[in-house]
Amino acid sequence: MKELKEKAQALIDKYTPELSSKGLKILLSKRYFESEVGERSGGHGVCAIIFNSIDRARDHKEEKKKGYNYEKNKYHYFILTLCPTEKNAFRREECREYAFILKKVERAHVGQEPRRVLYREEKILSKIEKQILKILKKAEKSSAQKVCQNNIIDAFRYAMTAKYEYKERFLGKESFSWEMIFISAFCVLVFGSMFIIWLFTK
After folding, report:
1. Helices (H), 66-174
2. Cβ pair 93, 104 in contact under 8 A
3. Are 57 and 21 in contact (CB under 8 A)?
4. pTM
């Protein structure tokens, strides 16, 4: 893992002069994050509740029988933090982040076998380089502050993408609040579209 981090840093260093000329710098950090594995979800009807209870009891039995020991979901990341070179432009918490999963242990619910994934070194480095090139391309048309600072699109990325679960707060709100905002907006959009279709077909 140490060797991979050195390669990732060398890749960032390769583009540092070009980034600096545009008022940008990239900070590389390694992060580990765990999250609890919950019970499987289901419907809300009377019959569904009964069957859900049976399934969950079976899941807990399977968890003990297979020796999964209620293992948590576990993620090892590289985090690229994009900041302006100008001092005190804004706080680091406001800087845009990009997460790259190195390896993970993951499952949807209790009772399911944990799935262990180790990503290839070449794939990780390729993704990092592609992201740096995207940043440089964007910097040709935008200011360093605009390229670095989180916006509503980043909030959507952080709130609705599983690999950013480690971010508890961004753009002044808790992650859960952003999730509710985006889910509510999606529901309004769907029902609004259905209502418009209903009006035209009436």
Report:
1. 121-139, 144-148, 152-160
2. no
3. no
4. 0.82
